[in-house]
Each structure stands twice: as C-alpha cells, then as structure tokens.
Amino acid sequence: MSKKRIIISFILGFLLILFFGSQSLTNQIKNTEILWDTYGIPHIYAKDTKSAFYTFGWAQMHSHGNLLLRLYGQARGKAAAYWGEDYLQSDRWIWTMGVPSRASAWYKAQNPDFRSYLDAFADGINTYAKQHPDLIDDDVEVVLPVTGEDILAHLQRVLNFTFVVNPESVTGITKQEPPGSNGWAIAPKRSASNKSMLLVNPHLPWSDLFLWYEAQVTAPGMNASGATLVGIPVLTIAFNDNLGWTHTVNTHDGWDAYKLKLAGDGYLFDGKVRSFETQTVNLQVKQKDGTLKTQPLVVKSSVHGPIVGEKQGKPIALRVVGLDRPGTLKQWWNMVRSQNLGEFQTALKALQLPMFTVMYADRQGHIMHLFNGHVPVRQQGDFAYWQGIIPGDTSQTLWTKIHPYKDLPKVVDPLSGWLQNANDPPWTTTFPTAIKADDYPSYMAPHTMDFRAQRSAKMLDEDEKISFEEMVKYKHSTRMELADRILDDLIPAARKYGNKLAQKAADVLEKWDKQANADSQGAVLFAAWANELDFDTAFSQPWSEKLPRTTPDGLANPQDAVKLLEKVALKLEKDAGKLDVPWGDLFRFRQGKLDLPGNGGDGYLGIFRVVNFAPAKDGRFQAVAGDSYTAAIEFSQPVKAMAIMSYGNASQPGSLHQTDQLELLGKKQLRPVWRSRKDVEAHLETRQVF
Predict the structure, then answer these.
(1) Which of 139, 114, 112, 141 lies closest to 53, judged by CA?
(2) C-alpha to C-alpha distance for 642 and 168, rounded to whole angstroms
(3) 195-251: per-residue pLDDT in tens?
(4) For domain 481-607, which CATH number applies: 1.10.10.60, 1.10.1400.10, 3.40.50.150, 1.20.1250.20?
C-alpha cells in the first residue's frame, strides 16, 4: 500500500471514530429527558451516568445560568479581569489559597470514569449556553467554556474556603459562626406510622454561592431527590426509596491561625530559621474603559500554609483541612446511590467531606448521627485553645494528620429513638446521652447547647409518637425558647422596678403567645430586648452540662434588664407607634413584586423556624437568610415527602420560579415532592428531550 493511501486510510478511520463516537454520545443524550414540574424542579431521566451529569449541568444553566457562570469565574480567580475591581479581593483570596493549581491537581486525581462525569456536567453547561445565548447575560459569557477543573475550583471555594474557613474570619483572625441548620432523624419506635422519618432544614443566605437547587435524578441504579448548591454536580442532601440524609453545620474546627516569629528573611521553627516559599501572581483587573491593569500579588507561605495577615507586627499563617482530599464529589455520589446503612457507611468511610454533621434515616428503621469532618490530630489544648492564635514556632502545634472515621463521634439507633442537631455539639444529639464527650479528645467539639437546640430536643422528647403531619408542624414552630425561659423573671421585674412604659411593656409581653408568627404581638418588643442583651452576663444561672436543657435561666441583674426593656420600648413606640405591633407588619417576605408578612426569626432566640431578616429601605426588615431548602421525608412505601425552596428554584431573569414558593413560606406550608413519573407528568410544565 502506498504512503498516500495509508495516510488517506488513517484519516478516514479517524473520521469514522469521531463520527461514531459522536453518534454514540448523541444517542445517549437523545435517550435523556428532563420533565420540569410546575415548580420548576427538573426530573432527570437518563440511560447512563454520563448523560445524567450532562443533563444536570444543562438544567442548572437553565435555572441559574448567570449565577453559575459568575461563581465559576470567581473560583478561577479571574473575576476582576472579567468584571472589575469589585472582585479583586475575591481573586486575592482564591490565589492566596492556591485554588486554581489545586483544582488542576484534583481534576487529575479523579479516576477516569468520574473525571468523565465532571466533563459531561461541564459539557451540559456549555451546550446550554451555545443553544440559548440570548438567555445568558453578556457580561458572564466571558467565563465560557466551563471545564471540569472549574467545577473543582468552585467546590473548594464553597467547602474549604467558605464553610470551613471564610475570608471574613481570616481578616479579623477570629472564628466566626458559620450559617446554621436543623436536622432530625426519627426511628419507627417514635413514629406514629412506625416508619423512619427525616427532617432536612439548612439555614443559608438566600443569595450567591449559598443558593440551593432542587432536582430529581433517575439513572441506572438510582432514583434520588434532593438538593445541591448551585454549581455542584451532585446532590449533596438527598433521599432515595430506601434512605436519606441531611447535613448540618457542625461545631467543627478545621482551620488554625499560626503566629510566626520572624528571623532574618525567614521565620523560626523548632529553633531553626526556615525560608518562606514565595510566589508572585499577576492579577488582571478590568478598568472602566475595558482595558486590563496588572496588579501583582505576592503569596508567601510557611510550613503551616499561606500568610494571610499579621498580628502585632508578626505574620499569621493559615492551615486548613481537606486540601489533600479530592474525592468529595465522588463520596456524595456514592452516598446518593447507597441502598442501605452498610453501603452508606462505606461511602462515609472515604472521609473526603471536610465538615458537616450527617443525619441519616432509612426504610429498615435505622437512624444515625455522625459528627463528620476532618478533625486534626492535635498534641495539646482543648477546643477553646484552638479558637485563638496558635504559636507557630514549634512542631508541637503543627498538626499533620486527621482522625480516621472510627474516631469520629457517632451513634446508630439510640435508645431514645430520635436524633436532632441544631448546630450544637454531638453530645446533645439525644437524651439520654448517646455520645459521651469524655470518650473523645477535648479538642473534638465544645460543650454547649443553645436555646434553638434545646427547643429542638424538647419538641422531639415530649411527643412519644410523632406523625408526619406533626413533624411538619414542629418544623414551622416559631416559639421562642428564650421567652419560655426568662419571661417569668422579666415581667415581675418590670412590674417591680419599671417606669410607666415598662409596666405597659410588661402587659404586652404577658399577653404575647411567645411566638414569632405574622400576627404575634409582643415578639417585636421581646426580640428587640433580647438583641441588646449580653448573653454572657445576663443570666443568674449560666448554662450547665448537668442541666443542658433547662439552663441558662434567671436574670443576673433584674434592674438592668428592666432598664434595657425601657430603652427598647421607648424606641419601638417612637418608630412603630405602639409596643404590640404584629411581627409580620415589620418583618417581611419580599421577592420580586411580592411583599408578604413574615414569620420566624433568629435562632439565638430559641426559634426552630429560623429566618434572618435585614433592614430594608422603608424601615422594615426583609428575609435574607434562614430556612432555604426544607424537606420532610417518611420512608413508607412509597416514600412520602414534602418540601419547599423558600426563594424558588430559579434565579434567571424572567423565570416564573423566582417567587412561586414564597407564599407557601408565608403560610408555613410545604408542597408535595413528586417522585413517580406518573405524578411528575400529572404536574408537568414542560418536557425537554435530548
């Protein structure tokens, strides 16, 4: 055969491979559907895993395209180049933390199959953008095309560098409290139906990288419903026909700030001078005229990690867990495909997820609480010690290992038949105590139980047979545990020590129902008083491990408490015109053209139904965080589930699903979760066939 014919044959063969490979992929996608229900929730039916990932990427772009691309642009560390100086701090954080290079390393570390799934998710994003360029804002199109590495960069930014540690905490070198959550698991012995139940209830901000996205994904070996954060390619809180789980933000310490001692051009470590590792990154910043200006960023690192600031003239280095664990997405994928407790625990044992409590229930009647996370093996100190700035001149404080799965606090099937977590330590997950703090290192978790957790435990403990409907009702409880605890002291004190206004305030508080419902009169006054209270010094009986559910209690200084009540009552009467203004008159659910009376409030008040409000321009307050994706699940046959996405399941301009669940939120209602194809088709908005 001539050289020319050999070349022609090779080219033809290559083209055939490309053609049939392309046809094969096309056939896969052609056998995939999205059934969009009337709440804008995608129900994905895929013939294989790669198609499921592709379609999930496509669906997320349809619902949140502008947000998704902006988040990926920030995760690349190129946001300032795309959108200007407002994003410069974000880029500095990303490059100081080494996200881009680590994302590349993590991508290469995936096994070939899972790497192909990430590529498929990215392909779905890119294909949607090509098919619908008119639906994507012009200023975010610069991020395209998206790659598998972008997904992993975004994952790092969300998990390791927002939840585990965030730039605000590092700026002040203080460990701020992260967003909250509630979770319940109820065993058959405490269920009215004799079926296990699960309550899913994260409390995140209603914007940016914290937005949830609800979906159902059906593919070979799985039929899962749940939610994930926008831009994450797998469900992260989910349930199938046999089991489910939720996450709560646990009392986990996964980062430390080390103060270094400078010596010459380096720093002291174990009596020797070590040199800093230095890297210069040229950040590009888009100017108002469209040109790019270069700003160099010098990243210095010690053996502990990157230098993030200074304290008293000495550099502070940051050490963060999980940076050597690239398998978080695969672990979540294995969790959602598990069919029993054994398979689920096998997935958990991979220990790739850097933090979050796991609250679990299944059809077989098992419930579980796992204090999950990468907990450093420390040589000294208790939990409080590691909240401060740590001496960085000795290897005695430098942790290099994390505790294995077997070391983590956990309980399966407790005697009580119920488990709760409201961001309290694992020691208070149920009563009688099932996880004993003395069995674990003192740095594992703190010893505390706040009012919301106490309210959570009280509702579970006081009802020996909880129905599905009761669980939904309890989930929406706005009763303030703090009011139950302290009004019996505050009202008599106001009558004894207070002026005329304090007497009037006492009358309002005495008539109040101790709840934060839209029509509750007295909640505004009490919350204003509590907001000014110093919880560290206010109580005559501080919180006690021996009385974890009934302390703190009593007023340490009743006269001061009454003076504070007079102060807030005077301001409220001036601002609102009366002391008994209904809660919903001032606290609002607002989105688009909707403006509804709100309910719920801050968790520190002991409210289980957490909604966080921020001041609005008209002098009122509007919801900005709190109850976001909520689901109640009973593992009956078939699974019974109801849910809500408080802010709707889409953020794209013009979508009908930006506000369509807000009225349910105001009414304290959940909607059905449709899981069978028959039910989905009965509530079908549109069908997308690939």
Answers:
(1) 114
(2) 36
(3) 999 999 999 999 999 999 999 999 999 999 999 999 999 999 999 999 999 999 999
(4) 1.10.1400.10
